[in-house]
Amino acid sequence: MNAPTTEAVPPVRRLGVIGDAHAEDERLEAALEVLAAEQVDLLVCTGDLVDGTGCPDRTVELLRDAGVVTVRGNHDRWLLEDKARHVPDAHRAEALQAKTLDYLRELPSERLIPTVAGPLLLCHGVGKSDLRKVWPGSERMPPERSKELDALIAGGQTRFMLNGHMHFRVLVHFQSLTMFNAGTLRGNHAPGFTILDFETGAAHPFTLGEGVPERVDLVPLNPTPDRRIWKDTLEFDGNWQPTRVF
């Protein structure tokens, strides 16, 4: 099995996090302007750059020009494979610029990023699986377990996993790893982006409800006494209160 692409950067203190973009080029531009002013050390995106109401070519151009470290999402893979083009607001490869397609083809499924608090795995689902979901369970959704994440936890080499796919900005704590779902720029349910400050242990969320970035209350990044801490996903039983990051 190939190892994740490792970013050759100094350990990150402040990380600018953009979730699934879904061609929301205008919201992406607004997010990038704020993150540039916040002077973060590195910008990342969890993929799914296509299939949305905006412009995928401009979305890719903005990410590329800003040097955003990005991974491939399942929608990006589907477009390249000409699959699932029945999804809402689907794009077609033949409608995209050649340089956009080249960018999508070159995206890895996962990247390893050093932070001052330990290694962070950036992916879309879980590791190389871009369709895997992780969810401890709730009234509306049963537990979603992951043998891939359990193996990562057992390995003990990764302190954080940052993913997307579920479009819900939430923290899930394990004994040796914290998972953060970065959410999305798409839709009307708290679209936004986040700054993860690994020095202070805080997540600084922003919303984009009207397309204008708005800072909301910060959330502790590390476990607190009122949060459920799991050993691995086999322990998921639905008995928890989600730690929302928005």
Write the SSE topology.
Layout (H helix, E strand, L loop, with lengths): L4 E2 L7 E5 L6 H13 L4 E4 L10 H10 L3 E2 L3 H8 L16 H9 L3 E4 L6 E4 L23 H9 L4 E4 L6 E5 L3 E4 L10 E6 L4 E6 L6 E2 L3 E2 L8 E2 L12 E2 L2
Helix pairs in contact: 1-2, 2-4
Largest sheet properties: 8 strands, mixed
Domain module count: 1
DSSP helical segment count = 5
Calculate the terminal CA-CA distance, rounded to whole Å: 36 Å
For this structure, the CATH topology is: Purple Acid Phosphatase, chain A, domain 2
Can you give me a brief rundown of this structure?
This protein is 20% helix and 22% strand.
Explain this structure.
- The chain is an alpha/beta fold.
- It has a single domain, classed as 4-Layer Sandwich (Purple Acid Phosphatase, chain A, domain 2), CATH 3.60.21.10.
- Helices cover 20% and strands 22% of the residues.
- It contains five helices and 15 strands.
- It has helices at residues 25-37, 56-65, 74-81, 98-106, 147-155, and strands at residues 5-6, 14-18, 42-45, 69-70, 110-113, 120-123, 160-163, 170-174, 178-181, 192-197, 202-207, 214-215, 219-220, 229-230, 243-244.
- The strands form two sheets. Strands 1, 5, 6, 7, 8, 9, 14 and 15 form an eight-stranded mixed sheet that branches. Strands 2, 3, 4, 10, 11, 12 and 13 form a seven-stranded mixed sheet that branches.
- Strand 11 (202-207) and strand 12 (214-215) form a beta hairpin.
- The radius of gyration is 17 Å and the shape is globular.
- It starts with a strand and ends with a strand.
